[in-house]
Amino acid sequence: MQSTLALLYSVFKIRISVSIMLCALAGIAVTPGVGLAPWQVTILALSVLMASASAGAFNHYVERDLDVRMARTRSRPFVTGRFQTGAHWLAVIVCLLLVAVLAAGLATNPIAALYVFLGAFTYGVVYTLWLKRRTWLNIVLGGLAGSFAVLAGAAAIDPGLSPTPVILAIVLFLWTPPHFWSLAFVFRDQYLAAEVPMLPCVIAPQRAAQVILAHTVALVALSLVPFYYDLGWVYLAAALTGGLVFIRASYHLSLNPNPVRAKRAFSASLLQLSLLLIGAIIDAALVS
Question: Residue ranges per domain, the chain?
């Protein structure tokens, strides 16, 4: 039973889904207006979690032929046969997404529900099916998944969208490429062998590291802008701390591109995003 739960945890990418849910909560927190009732926040958060989980499972399902060609993914349940593919899995994935979108719409409004759907669609279809095996722009456009989560939270309060959540959504869009390119740098040989055109595989490592640094500087600079709208010092301190850590790691990677430094940049990206989102939520809570 415990091993099955662990497999389900990995297939539905719960860790990533929780991060996406946190993006939605940050979107709620930074949006001015009449706040949601606790039950509405809970349902919207769970809806984003379920939608993201459905997209994650779909990603595992359709990429099993690719996963078997990479050491880091060949132990996934659909590859090993622990989970058998079939229509029942697709039915579960589709139903999970439909329930998530319907619940979000009933608890909040149709615009928020649309963003919940678009987040899952972007990752599951646009990134996984359309772009991943075709172009290095795959994760660039795939990064919209996190952005839509922020917009879902914001639209639940104000479908018109105020500047702060829009800026935060753009920050998420800019964050995803250097985050994932750092990981792709670590497993560059595996992506090359699998013929997946991640940026570190299609240009020279030095150039890829410079692009990662440029993206990092841009997203950190933009992440400070909400302070000039309606977020306060707690957010600014969190954004600066995490941002400087990420910039430092990316800078070191650009000086000497190698898997060790790429892994540090990847870890720094996770810290930066966590501090940014938690800082936004705490800052908004203190102000209210």
Answer: 2-287
